[in-house]
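ARCHIVE CARD
SHELF: 3
SLOT: left
DATA:
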Amino acid sequence: MNWGSIRAQFPALENWTWLNTATYGQVPLRTRAAVDRHFARRDETACTDFLDWFDDVDEIRGLIAQLIHCSADDIAFAMNAASALSLFLGGMEWHAGDRIVTLRDEFPNQYYCAASLADQGVELIRMNEINSLPERTRAVLVSTVNYSNGYRPDMMFVSQLARRSGALLYVDGTQSVGALRFDTAAVKPDMLAVDGYKWLLCPNGSTFFYVSPELRRILRPAVIGWRSDIGWRSVNELHHGAQRMPEAAEKYEGGMLNFPSIYGAGESVRMMLEIGPELIERRVMELAEMAAEMLRRSGAAIMNERSHIVAAHWPDRDAGILAQKLQEQRIIVAARHGNLRVSPHFYNTEADLARLETALRDR
């Protein structure tokens, strides 16, 4: 693979050493062009063909389904992962004594949303590792990779635990999908949400979420609108009777979509499928291992091995101050909970890591 030619798709990398995809991914030129084409088309047609846009979105659902191994009917779109999680928890019937399990140091979405159910008597339990589930666990909320320390739970094991316990499994794949492969058919989550602006290199507002056919039978939509009826395409004579809910995951969208961002997301996903998810994962992990070794040479301890989010900790260096000093040299990493977080994607190079190592040595 000619990674150099692919890097040319990301003009920001000419002026910045960007090692912070876990905060923001760089948007490729071809993705920006897809967004521009949509707006040009609106000018050309005056939006008279807006129903055709939904056909394009259905094609993009198919691309996403190919990436994560599911059916296009399983995919819906939202503005962010918090919207998908709010749908997941808000659409369930809760009873006093029910429990929600998550991990310690999870992304705050999982804490805030689950804790909001406390007034219904629902208990949030935070565990260091999910090796077993307590009685009355109704839902498990877990990220594929921890955003601050790089921890990667065994998703297959967690899924098996949840199924044996009769609990629903919500997975946030925002910090891995686009860098690491995810097989929905194998893991079998009830919902998988991915905010595409990180590792999928998409514009903001292009979150997708998978909803299993089984969950769709019981999960109430959070938004009801004109597209919540199976006859929504008959815009000349929309149905005015009792609502007839579609079976596909699109029933959770309700109304119009963020078409510019979704067109952009479609192009980013196409690019990744063209390169090959396996090849991308191999390259990302190679760069992460190089970063981990380089950080060890600087005296840091690596918080979790075999992760593409490399979290380093020094007993005598302040990660926040260090990240700020590096930014002054246009080397961008992040500080999270006392760790310096380095998160390279396939568009990075060995030269980027060498620049970081030199800067750390000089500090």
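SLOT: right
DATA:
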Amino acid sequence: MAGCRSLTKQEQDSVVNKLSNQRDKTLFILGLYCGFRISELLSLRLKDVWADGGVLSRIRLERRFTKGKTQSRDVVLHPVAQEAIQGLVLLLRNEPDSFLFQSRNHGKALSRCQAHTILKTAYAAAGVTGHVATHSMRKSFATAVYKRSNHDILLTQKALGHASLVNTVKYLSADQSAVDAAILAS
């Protein structure tokens, strides 16, 4: 979503604490630690994250579920994301083809609109202001990968699954206090 901003670590923690159930917490945590678009998250099925009685170490998104549908994406699962999935899977029926993020409507997938409402409610309850929505999770992921990779834009591009660096740059916003400090550093 154009204009959405990334979340600070403190905001992320506050939002997690305001989410009321394991499904919603897992959705938010996977968004932060995998960088998937909301439609990609909502397409996940149990078999995509769970096999042989345990959480997989990687998630592979089939290309039909990715933006542009041109290539699949393979993302390693951070231990925090694995733990969240573990907690959610224990609450689900053990059907491999069932959606990971189910609506209350007979096991159907949570809709993008429902996910948006859930997150906007949590943002408001956590006191997170500004232009934040479902895409804020992906932007937060991009910012975190960029910082942890010592500002490697190509690595960040690969982590986001972007075909163009131009798109990746749009995800990375400079913190105004960092800009001010760089100007005053001389």
